[in-house]
Amino acid sequence: MADHTKTEQPVHRNEALHRKIAIKEERKYHNVSFIMMILLTLIAFYAIWSDKVSSSFAILFILVLAVIQVFFQLYIWMHLSHKGHDFPLWGMISGILIAAITVAGIAGLIWTS
Amino acid sequence: METNQRLTDDHFPENPEKATLDGKNKFLGFWLFLGGETVLFATLFAVYIGLRDNHMDGPSAKELFQLPTVFLATMLLLTSSLTSVYAVLALKQNKVKSMIGWFLVTLLLGLGFLGLEVYEFIEYVHEGHTFTKSAFSSSFYTLVGFHGGHVLFGCLWLVTLLLRNWNRGITLTNAPKYYLFALYWHFVDVVWVFIFTVVYLMGKVG
Question: Which family does it belong to (chain B) (predicted)?
Fold first, then answer.
């Protein structure tokens, strides 16, 4: 911060413009992901509501929709795709991995007993 | 630079939430916390999936759940997730008023969601679906109630955050706090995505 001199002022302004464009771009991503998530939710509810899809397929189908939706949340809204998110990404992946093992393990145990 | 100083547009860092070591630590620690929360909710989901058919003589999931209420609640929470992302965008542009505005909308939507959930639970209790009725009802209330508790906590967190920083503008101290709240709020929405899918929709098809 200290070595910023007056000669860098134009660069600074240019940077500000770049940032403005980047944020505009980001807002667009957010809007698209919101619409996508609304659509995914609608499809999931419709698949169950309409009773047109067979139960076992519907369950698999809505689970896949949920996973896609979570991907949108994590990557776009929680910015996991941005720079400097390697550590959080690993944290979440290991969390999700343990979560999957937990669900399979406990649910399986109760089921078979 | 004094971290409690109101930031001006001229000296606004690109990522104010990670401009200080304190902010970086908060960011990392919070993601680790979210990883842990994922596991916590996984255990609750696992128990629910294992026990959801054991409804004894109480109402079953299929008889109980009202999809319109759940759908409305889902929309409220999903929209609140979007408004909190708008608040973070405003934060990154040093637009304090717009940020507070979006956070207030987020708060209202969150409270609306909570209201619907309370209404829903009261209805269920009237239909004999009480906490101690069956393994199904206990695991249901534990899972969904725990999520509702997270929403309630988020609302209280946001209120304190806004009140404490009302006239302070955006500083290097409070920027990470606002940012982390938004992360938390998205996470609560992520959990809800699985609740409406696994609990309500899968409950309807049996």
Answer: Belongs to the cytochrome c oxidase subunit 3 family.
